[in-house]
Amino acid sequence: MSKIHLIPHKVDKVYESAADIPEGVQMIQAPDIWEEASKGKGNVVAVIDTGCQIDHPNLKDRIIDGKNFTSDYEGDSTNYDDNNGHGTHVSGTVAAYSSQDGISGVAPEASLLVVKVLTGEGSGDYQWIIDGINYAVNWEGPNGEKTRAISMSLGGPEDVPELYDAVKKAVDAGIPVICAAGNSGDDRANTDESAFPGSYNEVIQVGAIDFSRKIAPFSNTNDEIDLVAPGVNILSTYKDGKYAKLSGTSMATPHVSGSLALIINVAEKRFDRRLTQTELYAQLVRRTIPLGYPKSAEGNGLVALAILEKFEQLFDVYTKPYGS
């Protein structure tokens, strides 16, 4: 059996410091619902990747727990530090927190469960991934916290039955699984490119767009694409306490994972109960806008977290009695 790898990505630029709400976070309208969503507080997102820099100033207070399933650090399961940079970047897009210096992620008060399943070289055994997913599903925090979403910016060419079973177990447990579509695209929507686990019907498969709302030429297209998010020149946290701009569907995926941490708080407050995975997916899809591309490229469209509130405000205007 072959290895599973990071979705290939491009490191555009590394920065010593940064202080901003990244353009991608703004593009999906996350700050517009931060107040109503309590910035994702109370929700745990499992990032299954290369680990995370545990003492990064914008991440250290967001990490609730973690585990290393790789052979790195002589197989020390308690050391899930990031020796690649990719996992730290993904984690920052989900939940980086900035009080003054640094950047904010999509859900800056959500918690991160760091699951290191890929080595510093960016590859891992399928069994590591499978064990990592099962760990995230079964994990319970010190105060009874449970994983509410799983983010995976990794993939391989093989449809491994045991990997599918692990994904299915997570979804059956009510946990949305968000996966990168892959970066093997040829800039044509009528040709299919696939990577697993992204191509499983049960996962939320994310393609990438740029800040001009154009589909990134590298973004895989296929009939299982669910939606798209920013994935070109994405600013986030990086190893060694730094920041970086990276490009890839890997970078689009955590925008959606963080979005679910916000949506859970908004929607479950309104329904006054815990929602199922299917209901959470429906709430996510309701917060998208089509961009005019074929479904094989954009699925339901771009995440737009405040779109429902904007419609409600518009509806209020048109339904108020004349002169009120």
TrEMBL record:
Single GO MF annotation: peptidase activity
Reading the lineage from the top rank, the first entry is: Bacteria
Residue ranges occupied by any Peptidase S8/S53 domain in the UniProt entry: 40-287
GO BP annotations of the record are: proteolysis
Any idea which residues are catalytic in this one?
D49, H86, S250
Q: Which UniProt keywords apply?
A: Hydrolase, Protease, Serine protease
KW Transcription (keyword) present: no
The record ties this protein, via InterPro entries, to: Peptidase_S8/S53_dom, Peptidase_S8/S53_dom_sf, Peptidase_S8/S53_subtilisin, Peptidase_S8_Asp-AS, Peptidase_S8_His-AS, Peptidase_S8_Ser-AS, Peptidase_S8_subtilisin-rel, Subtilisin_Carlsberg-like
> So what family is this one in?
Belongs to the peptidase S8 family.
Instruction: Write down what this protein is called.
Output: Serine protease
Which species is listed as the source? Virgibacillus siamensis
